[in-house]
């Protein structure tokens, strides 16, 4: 594919003038690599990688697809915290070091003595598997290179590996690769898979359309330079989004790209560097990426602009928060630079040419009847009317007690697009070709302040940190399902919702609110009853339903002998809440592996055989209890 002359000159400028030399990593040598130190290692996850609910906060180190590898202390220090958990980090050790930093080692199979014995004693004292301990400073000192545990697959791990983090005293997560581990080799620049461009205001266009559009970059021969096949025509305020990932030498799996920089006409207008993330802000990943594209298409587009409501300390974007204001008849040379932790760089280079919006019309002979649809993009209501007429007709918008005609901005394949700024007032309905369709807009909910919405069907309390940006709330009740917003809008913090279901409830103590996913999935939202109303906390938007869980958990004995007893436990709706096992009336520690729904025992005194009457009680989150009796 031939590049135009101007673009070819721009690529030459990048290579010869800017220089892409790698910079050495800081603080090299202070920490030892915690798995097979001194040997070649590989990563299954990198710092800042985009996960469904958070930024990945460290390194996932491969452990040869098995558990039981020795885990080494990265530096001198002392064990300041240890936790055993069914979910999340699983079994985890925190080591605090003289330089004020703390390293963490997660998903462990087991701890080494004397820590293992200390934890086991505490579990029996408190009669619980899940616990968190903060040993005194001098109780468990460690030396650099000391074996502290065996690697495992506990907690929320998706496979055997060690999750390794470096934190400071304020719980900010640092990229461990800053410490220059020679065990990881990376000379491979990031891959660039996609570019998206988004219009922001009612006058903005991308290739004469008001639409989020994605483009497929093309890699040039012999260089880590990507381009677009064609010039992009745009107008008004637009923003770029980049889909990129990184690979390490000798590995096929894809990891995160830590840094993206945008240059317009050789001037930097935006940068983000995911090298240090405050732990409490990690879940704001939903505002760093295009959440809508992630939910709808499972594609991770990192925004190359700072969205409103995003206060992550990752960005440098002083002017227009990284957005580009495109003027008619102007040409912009765009370069998006993707850089990994080892300073390997790839560039996406293309041209944006300013083009004033003009009315365009193309017809589609297959269109047989009128149709109407709409979507909200930021503050703009975009109405798409499929028309059988050769001349596009206006849509009529009712706002308050007035009716407005929306003139189409353009027509593509017999679909006319009309735009309306919702800040002018919430519309009640829209009419087209004799048919009136009501809207479901209920309220304009501002971010950064408390807001209480009340309707006939529900009350929603928005905390001042619930929203990232202004929400044009749509909420309704259809039968026994309550819909609040949609699945594609992220929340910063939870909202509190009160509903009064009109369905018959057999037992309120067994009834709770459940979040309904896009498929058959259901998640417990819980709730507290007050008379006939129930109040629950919603951490996401979507569909909710009150359901009763009247069935107790199911318990199946897998094995029993003098050394160990093992069960499989499951629940069909609300999920497992707790379990307790006793042998001859004495509490027996049961470890829970939720990934395969098994619990298995560990004795306090390994020399004493298990013998006698075994009673296992398992409760679900609705309070239903199953009791299983057996004898060893």
Topology overview:
Blueprint lengths: L4 H14 L24 E3 L13 E4 L7 E3 L4 E8 L7 E5 L5 E5 L3 E2 L3 H12 L4 E3 L7 E2 L4 E4 L10 E7 L4 E3 L16 E9 L5 E2 L6 E3 L2 E2 L5 E3 L4 E14 L13 E6 L2 E7 L2 E3 L6 H4 L2 H7 L4 E2 L11 E2 L7 E3 L4 E9 L5 E10 L16 E7 L2 E7 L8 E5 L2 E5 L3 E3 L2 E7 L5 E6 L2 E4 L2 E5 L5 E4 L3 E5 L8 E8 L2 E4 L10 E5 L11 E6 L5 E5 L1 E3 L2 E6 L3 E7 L5 E7 L4 E6 L5 E8 L2 E8 L4 E5 L10 E8 L4 E7 L1
Parallel strand pairs: 17-26, 18-26
Antiparallel strand pairs: 1-2, 2-11, 3-10, 4-5, 4-8, 4-9, 5-6, 6-11, 7-10, 11-12, 12-21, 13-15, 13-18, 14-18, 16-17, 18-22, 18-24, 19-20, 19-25, 20-23, 25-26, 27-28, 28-32, 29-30, 29-33, 31-32, 33-34, 35-38, 36-37, 37-40, 38-39, 39-45, 40-44, 41-42, 41-45, 43-44, 46-47, 47-50, 48-49, 48-51, ...
Description:
It is a single chain. By secondary structure, this protein is mainly β. The protein folds into five domains: 5-19 and 187-354, no CATH class; 43-179, Glucose Permease (Domain IIA) (Distorted Sandwich), CATH 2.70.70.10; 371-439; 443-548, Chondroitinase Ac, Chain A, domain 3 (Sandwich); 554-631, Immunoglobulin-like (Sandwich), CATH 2.60.40. It is built from four helices and 52 strands. Strands 13, 14, 15, 16, 17, 18, 19, 20, 22, 23, 24, 25 and 26 form a 13-stranded mixed sheet that branches. Strands 1, 2, 4, 5, 6, 8, 9, 11, 12 and 21 form a ten-stranded antiparallel sheet that branches. A hairpin with a 5-residue loop joins strand 5 (92-96) and strand 6 (102-106). The termini are far apart. Residues 11-26 have low confidence and may be disordered.
């Amino acid at each position: 594919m031939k590049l135009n002359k101007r673009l070819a000159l721009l690529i030459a400028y990048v290579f010869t003038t800017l220089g892409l030399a790698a910079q050495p990593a800081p603080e090299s040598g202070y920490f030892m690599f915690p798995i097979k130190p001194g040997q070649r290692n590989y990563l299954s996850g990198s710092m800042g990688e985009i996960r469904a609910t958070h930024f990945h906060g460290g390194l996932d180190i491969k452990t040869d697809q098995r558990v039981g590898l020795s885990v080494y202390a990265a530096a001198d220090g002392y064990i300041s915290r240890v936790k055993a958990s069914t979910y999340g980090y699983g079994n985890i050790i925190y080591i605090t070091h003289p330089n004020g930093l703390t390293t963490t080692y997660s998903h462990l199979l087991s701890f080494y003595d004397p820590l293992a014995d200390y934890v086991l004693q505490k579990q029996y004292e408190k009669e619980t598997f899940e616990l968190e301990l903060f040993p005194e400073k001098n109780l468990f000192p460690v030396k650099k290179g000391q074996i502290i545990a065996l690697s495992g697959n506990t907690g929320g791990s998706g496979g055997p590996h060690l999750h390794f983090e470096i934190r400071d005293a304020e719980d900010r997560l640092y990229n461990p690769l800053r410490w220059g581990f020679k065990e990881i080799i990376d000379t491979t620049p990031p891959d660039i898979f996609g570019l998206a461009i988004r219009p922001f205001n009612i006058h903005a266009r991308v290739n004469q359309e008001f639409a989020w559009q994605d483009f497929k970059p093309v890699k040039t021969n012999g260089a880590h330079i990507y381009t677009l096949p064609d010039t992009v025509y745009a107008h008004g305020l637009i923003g770029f989004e980049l889909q990129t990932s990184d690979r390490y030498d000798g590995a096929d799996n894809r990891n995160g790209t830590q840094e993206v920089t945008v240059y317009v006409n050789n001037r930097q207008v935006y940068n983000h560097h995911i090298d240090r993330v405050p732990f409490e802000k990690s879940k704001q990943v939903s505002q760093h990426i295009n959440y809508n594209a992630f939910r709808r298409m499972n594609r991770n587009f990192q925004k190359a602009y700072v969205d409103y409501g995003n206060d992550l300390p990752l960005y440098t974007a002083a002017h227009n928060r990284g957005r580009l204001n495109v003027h008619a008849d102007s040409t912009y040379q765009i370069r998006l630079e993707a850089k990994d932790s080892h300073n390997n760089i790839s560039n996406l280079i293309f041209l944006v040419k300013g083009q004033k919006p003009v009315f365009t019309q193309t017809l589609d002979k297959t269109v047989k009847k009128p149709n109407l649809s709409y979507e909200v993009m930021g503050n703009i209501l975009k109405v798409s009317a499929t028309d059988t007429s050769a001349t596009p007709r206006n849509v009529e918008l009712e706002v308050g007690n007035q009716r407005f005609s929306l003139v189409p901005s353009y027509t593509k394949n017999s679909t006319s697009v009309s735009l309306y700024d919702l800040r002018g007032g919430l519309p009640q309905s829209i009419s087209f070709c004799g048919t009136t369709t009501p809207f479901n807009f209920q309220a304009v909910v501002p971010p950064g302040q408390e807001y209480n919405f009340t309707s006939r069907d529900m009350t929603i309390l928005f905390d001042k940190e619930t929203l990232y940006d202004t929400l044009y709330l749509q909420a309704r009740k259809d039968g026994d399902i309550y819909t609040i917003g949609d699945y594609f809008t992220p929340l910063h913090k939870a909202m509190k919702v009160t509903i009064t279901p009109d369905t018959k409830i057999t037992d309120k103590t067994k009834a709770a609110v459940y979040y309904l996913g896009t498929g058959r999935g259901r998640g417990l939202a819980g709730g507290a009853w007050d008379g006939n109303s129930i109040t629950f906390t919603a951490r996401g938007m979507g569909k909710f339903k009150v359901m009763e869980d009247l069935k107790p958990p199911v318990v199946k004995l897998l094995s029993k002998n003098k050394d160990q007893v093992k069960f499989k436990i499951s629940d069909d709706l609300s999920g497992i809440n707790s379990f307790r096992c006793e042998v001859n009336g004495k509490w027996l520690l049961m470890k829970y592996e939720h990934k395969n729904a098994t619990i298995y025992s560990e004795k306090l005194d390994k020399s004493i055989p298990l013998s006698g009457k075994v009673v296992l009680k398992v409760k679900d989150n609705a309070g239903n209890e199953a009791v299983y009796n057996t004898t060893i």
